[in-house]
Each structure stands twice: as structure tokens, then as C-alpha cells.
Amino acid sequence: MTATPSATAPECRALVLFGATGDLAKRMLWPSLYALDTDGLLPKAFRLIGAATSKQTDDEFRQKVRDAICTSANASLFDEAKFAAFAARIRYVTVDIQTAGGLDSIKGALHQGEGGVIYYLSTGPQLFGPICLALRDAGLIDPHSRITVEKPIGTNSKTAHEVNEAIGAAFEEHQVFRIDHYLGKEAVQNLLALRFANAIFEPLWNANAIEQVQITVAEAVGVEGRWGFYDGTGALRDMVQSHMLQLLCLVAMEPPAGFTPSAVRNEKVKVLWSLHPITGTDVETHTVRGQYAAGYSAGQAVVGYRDEKGASPSSDTETFVALKVGIDNWRWAGVPFYLRTGKRLAKRCSEIMIQFNPAPFNIFADIGATLSPNALLIQLQPEEMITLTLMHKKPGMNEVKLAQVPLNLSVGETFGHSRRRIAYERMLLDVLRNNSALFVRRDEVEAAWKWIDGIIDGWKTTGYAAKPYTAGSWGPSAAIALTERNGHSWNE
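User: That's the sequence. What structure does it adopt?
Assistant: C-alpha cells below.
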């Protein structure tokens, strides 16, 4: 789904990728750019400039890009002739932003012409400010330039504000594209279509008809050799502050006036402003922290978090978090939103479950039939699927028996099993087209962090420690109690 461009602008002439040799660039960005090129979606004279601190030639770097594509999710697209055309776009430059002339190599690689330059910062957030200021001081920013940055934007509301201030010292807000790659997933974008293109749902999309909402983002893997990074972050900062709150916003937002960047993001930030604070001792009844212990994953024995390579045996960083969230507005007052995410869980899945209120009266009670509430399940991964469960009579002549029946819409079966695109392909294409509707605005980032800060402060002041859970399970038993206190159960 592509939004209406936020403003008309000349076609971009180049993308400069800082951190061009990093893990994200190899796994996602270069394969995504290659796929866009093979689909004819890159401008004809568009140049790709990889920028990093190491010294290497253009040909050496192109070979690394080739290797990255051939081992990526887009490996099936590889074709020697197509890659040769793609490689012709690529230049490599060595940069050092600490020196006065550190970006001179970029100036030399950029060709003249109309159209802005996209600067993509695939680096740590501590470099966002210095790079932006270096670009400004080198005269490499003009009104058509764009800057794209990865999460995390800071580690709390204070540092997020500082990072945004540094970016804002060089770029106007309309030039800034803060990527949350979850918003590039087809099923996530379909949330907007499901809600606002179908008249049957919107009248029911409120507290009068909906009993609870669950959002799950579960990973079967552990920290995968990234213990040092992860231990300073944890599940709440890594997943909830960004991906999960963005999903919550898309589920809970009011209908925007149009599918434009300002209209969509205005409604999303209102949801963040309406989140009921979870602070102080409320964290003990509204949150669960967990950390995986040894167990089994995919039939293989795996070690616990504290036994991972490079780990500290005393770490209390959470690898699992579950939350009961309230939204203080007319549409959602009284409806619990349950969020959970974690590593080394029973399976990999991302889904949103909307459970409707039960029927007000069971006319089949006298014959022993029970009713279950209707539910709308939106699966994001591993397969994209929308399932609506309804009560239905079982076939038979002698008695009435009822059962839940799923009505499934499989994206693959309905529209054909086309290639599943990397989410970054959509996000990069929207940057090219100057469509920022599905990117995160500055006030969204800071509002999300302010709410998250309250939870973290509550954990610290109450000494709320992470509870161990067996790898391969669905997290600590306290997560079950979190929902059962309201008479609910996790969808599994």
C-alpha cells in the first residue's frame, strides 16, 4: 500500500548508505535495493554510494554486495546480467566524520543533476547527530535531501529528544524518515485497508463491541550472538517501544481524514497520548518481565540467557515482556490491550487478535450448547492470514450442536503465491517517492518513550526482577495470570 506523496519533488539522484558494510546493510538493504532495481523501480540514473570506515575499491565492495544478495531472502532473484546493471550504479567511499574533510569522498562520488540525495544511516544512534551535522557543514544538504534513520531513536525520552534535536539541526522534519520495518510488512499495511475500506468493521471497532485485543510478537530464536547489545536494551526497549506500539496505534487509531502523512500520523500520536500510564506499583499488576532459562527450541537443547556467549551470570535484562494496556479515550475505555513479546518462545509468530463481546443471550443453552465469542485474527508472520471465527451448527439430523468455524483469507491463495518481499523494499520505495505516512514522526517517538520510561522507572523503584521461563515455552506463568485476572486467556 502506497500513500499519496507528501509533496511533489524532483526524482532522487542518489542514495548514500552509511554503515554500508554492516549486518543490516548486508541482510536487508542491499538485497532490497537490488530487488527494486530488477523491478524497474529505481530511477534511471540513480546512484548507490556505500559509505563506511574501511578502505576498499569499488570492485571489492561490489563483490561483497553480490555475496550479500546471494545469501539473502532475495537470493532467488539473482541474475548475473541484472546484477551487472545494478553493480554499475554502485560506488564505495571511505568516510571519517571526525575530520574536517571527512565527507569529501561523498562529494566526489555524487554526480551533478536535479533531485535530492537520500542519506541512509544504518549506524548506531550515537552517530546520527554527528553525521547529520557533518553533512550540513559539508554543504551536502539541500531542500530535496532526505535522511533515513533506523531505530532505536535513543534509549529513553531524554536521549530520544537529544537525537531528534541533532537530526533537526540539519534537516527539516518533513525530510526525516524514521524507519520501523514492521510498518513495511504487507499484513501490517493491510490493517488500514481492513479497518477503513470495509464498512462492516468500523461500526464494531470500539468498546461497545470489542472485549479485548491481543498483540503478540514471538521469536523462537535467542540473542543470536548479540548478547552485548541486547543486554543493554531488553525486550521492552527493543520491541515494545517501537514495533508493538506502532501495531497498537494502527489498531486503535481514529479514522484519518485521508491517507496522507500528516493525517495518518496525527491519529497515531493521539493513541500514544491516550495510553494509561503504568507507573509505580502498577507495574506489578500490569506488566510481566521474564528471562529465558535453558530448554528446547525446534527440538534442540538450548542454553539460558545468562549462559549465552559473553553473558553475565547476574544479568536481570528481560527477554520477555507482557503488558496489560489501557487507552483512555471514548473509543477504547475499559478494553484491555494485552501485549507480549519475547525470545526463545514456543514458536515464531506475530499476530493481532480482536475478540468481540459474547452474544448477549444464549438461546441454545437449554439444549446444552455453549457460545464462544467471535474473533478476528490477523496473522503477520510466518504466514499472512486473516481469520474470522464464527459460531456454526455442526451437520446432523438429531440435535443442534454448535462449533467455532474459521473463515480464512490467505493472502497467498487469494492473490497468488508471489514472492514475499522484504519489508525494507516497501520502506525504501516510499522514501524514494517521498511518502512518509508509514514512517514514525518525531512526536510519536518521544510520546512512546515517555510512556515506556514510566514502566522502566516502576521496575526500578519496586525492584521488579525478571522471572525465569523455560526456553520453548510461552513465557513465565505470571503472563497467564496477567490475562486470567480479567477472565481472559492468551490466544495460542
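The first helix runs from residue 23 to 38.
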